What we know:
Elements: H1 15-24, H2 30-40, H3 55-64, E1 71-77, E2 83-88, E3 94-101, E4 106-109, E5 113-114, E6 132-133, H4 136-154, E7 162-163, E8 184-187, H5 197-208, E9 220-224, H6 231-238, E10 241-245, H7 251-257, H8 266-274, E11 284-290, H9 298-308, E12 313-319, H10 333-345, E13 349-352
Parallel strand pairs: 1-7, 4-8, 8-9, 9-10, 10-11, 11-12, 12-13
Antiparallel strand pairs: 1-2, 2-3, 3-4, 5-6
Bound molecules: iron/sulfur cluster.
Amino acid sequence: MTTETSPVRLTGLTREELDLQLAAWGQKPFRGKQLWSWLHVKLATEVAGMTDLSKEFRELLGQRTAPLRPGVGRHQVARDGTEKWLLVLADGETVETVFIPDEERGTLCISSQVGCALSCPFCRTGTMPLVRNLTAAEMVEQVLHVRTVLSRAGQGEETGAEGGAGKTAGGGKASSGEEKRITNVVLMGMGEPLYNYEATVKAVRILMDRNGLAIGTRKITLSTSGVAPRIPQVMRDLGVNLAVSLHAVRDEVRDVLVPINRKFNLAALRQAIMDSPLKSGRRITWEYVLLDGINDSLEAAAELAAFVRGIPSKMNLIPFNPWEGSPYLPSPREQVVRFQEVLHHAGLVTVIRESRGADISAACGQLKSF
Ligand code: SF4
């Protein structure tokens, strides 16, 4: 329980913790339900706006709680409607969050750490040192912030965005009444979520709460570079979708592309997946970025098919998104297609993930906040 002197981050509390905190402040039990609704359903951005709470209660909250949202350093909109926010945390550190709208869904990619310790050489985030883990509140607030902006944009409010698609969220429609919604959340932004385990599990539980944001387990995907010992545990604890940044199925290649492989090699990673409970109808998503001349041969494709045999799988082939100073080149399009054909012939569901938001450096592997 947080002490009286440090402000409480309400957005980082589960429903049960919120009730306990309010009880510790001498508040009646019904306050918990009211406050939870303001935080996660009505999307209040400040305590002062919680108009049906008594003045005394609002004053108490104002004195004892931290702001409900991060600061916004920058908000950009790409030509394809992808949006990126640079969010400023209470201590001045920054992270990026990306919203990718589609016909039928809207995916929010959130960060779990400031920087990343794992230094995958194809990933721009990997050029940043790990500064610190995010708290559960800082992860939840990424979702709350974007949901609030999208909701306001749907009502025609200005969002202050820069970029090709206009100044309002959702492709510049000023007052469309068509609110873009977050239907899916992926933990694929900056950082390795399984190296920030406790905060990640807590944040996801808050996002899933049925009386709050109510994002279901099928709509949340946690992406890991392969922290093998944590994989069965997180699958048991959360039951969300799992994506694995694979990128190579030979240890000598993966040792370079995903250096955590030197600690947890491919055999350990595969065993961890085999040991993980997978809900019926679910598949493991394997992320595979295609780098010209490095991991894109047809032989590599056949080895990849053999590696995932026996595991319900979906293959995501990611054309490499170059960034300034990156040491790799994207595979030619025809090679990407040939690679996909080998996987198709092996009976694997395989999609080529089209790059989104590359003109604002919001595409996969391009995030960097300082
Ligand atoms: S790919 Fe993921 S784990 Fe690797 S450096 Fe980038 S953010 Fe870190």
